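Colleagues,

Please find the record for the two-part complex below.
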Amino acid sequence: MPNSVWKPLKQSAFWLLVAVLLLILLFPFYYALVTSFKSGPSIFEVDVLPRGFPLDNYTSIFEEQSFARNILNSLFVSVSVVAVSLTLGLTAAMSLGRFRFRGRRMMLLAVLSVSMFPQVAVLSGMFELIRVLGLFNSGFGLIFSYLIFTLPFTVWVLTSFIRELPIEVEEAAIMDGAGPWTLLTRIFLPLMLPAMVTTGLLAFIVAWNEFLFALTFTLTNDQRTVPVAIALITGGSEFEVPWGRIMAASVIVTVPLIALVLVFQRRIVSGLTAGAVKG
Amino acid sequence: MGAVTLKGVRKRFASFEAIKGIDLEIEDGAFCVLVGPSGCGKSTLLRMIAGLEEISEGELSIAGRVVNDIAPADRQVSMVFQSYALYPHMTVFKNMAFGLRLAKTDEGTVEQRVRDVAEILRLTDLLDRKPKELSGGQRQRVAIGRAIVRNPKVFLFDEPLSNLDASLRVRMRLEISRLHRRLGTTMIHVTHDQVEAMTLADTIVVMNDGRVEQVGSPRDLYDRPANTFVAAFIGSPAMNLLSARVEPKGLRLEKAVDPGYLPFASAANLDDHIVTVGIRPEHFEVLEKGSDQDGALGFEIDVVEDLGDTRVLHGVLAGGPDCTVREPANAEIRSSGSRIFVNILEDYIHVFSQDGHRITHQ
């Protein structure tokens, strides 16, 4: 086939593929957005474009339900999870990546294997733990339980990142008189910022979206996080599933994630590729 | 002042002994180069002096003070690393100021000292740049500057030039040499490059397999290598080491089919029967064609390497052992396969016992 025909054909095939991919990825979210502006029976009509932008669903979840409180709970839990995982992850990574000690490999494998269990498998055990610790129906219980997903990847990513940092830089700092704490805060921390932003963001998303633990370990609506609250949004009667409100709430809680990713996207990319090639 | 003394220093890693007992005295203000093949322990020894490796046994003192248990930063030594090891997230100024600031030096002094040192190393215009915006040579200068700023009693250089390209390496070598003259501080420099060792050092320490083979000035090492290891290591192309039998007439090269005698008047005084003879390629005298001088040895040329100023001839000496001969490039062109005659002056013959030690004669 002549090149003049082949080339545009290849190009249009490429863009077609991109379009299909985008459609699959974005359609559910778009449909949620459209639905969030509907109420009553119009929900069951299929519309590609929204007919108007009534904000009834948006206002009602704040007025008729304690959705603001739920958002605050989610924020508190997610931010705390990020802070705790990064602090523990960084200090753990420093020792696992830089010091040789007996059982180091075992420890890394143990950390990894924890994250392989399905959530349901640890649910009942975790429930007992949380009750014993007196953390049931509290944000602290959720923070505690979420660490079992966030710590493994935080520790692993940061450990492999720390291993990539040239050891001579650390030795130079030691020669300059840096102790372990100065080393951590003035040398490692700034160098690892991209990796920390990436892992921190992933931890935030996991904590923000988590459902099963949040459902199991909270009892009252004022302790619930957003995903559970959305699932338990009630309609006008018990026979009505309030899709409009559910969609409105979903849109609201997705916006902060999108904003975060957009703000940090350059750092995320450099964090994800960091270590692949020596800078 | 900044003298460095090692007494019976050893280093063990688990089951492997990297440094097998080293006694060494480095005078204040000396430029000492530790040289040896890779894995000989030279870098480990330097890191022990720096305090980055613990000393398993023995005593290390710097400026008259035993420092075995003193933290690296308090030993009054600075180190320049092979990979420069600059702090990537700090500007040149901050890189150089880091140590001073950690030592709680007041900001005015920090500023002053960094600027002074930047002046010496021509870094003044680069003070606000980050390491990634610098060339290899500039990074190297920053690394040296960071070491100087702290005003140490001893500088430690761990193969600082091996990451630079050839021409830059020669320039930096000169610069380090100049710096030593200017500062007068003790410098200990590790390299595997014997040219670097010869040009920089006033004392060379040749190491092999965790031990010191010989300590001496570049001249000493070249003229009177203590053993075959040093003999082969110092000088390029390497010294020819040939096995020879001690006979009343002189030293007869093993495997030689020609008579193959080397002139050696005191051969009769040697106790050994078999010795190793060392002859530097540049110490052969290539005889003009036809002048079949008495005692001259035949040399069958195999490969000719023209280096511009000199020519290196690889071939077979006296029909026996492989040998290298160096001659000035202005001599007549020789082709591989041709046969020439070479002569060797007795003064230039080094004799080693079979176990490799120099036999002192006369």
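Chain A touches chain B through 17 residues (CB under 8 Å).

Comments are welcome before we finalize the supplementary table.
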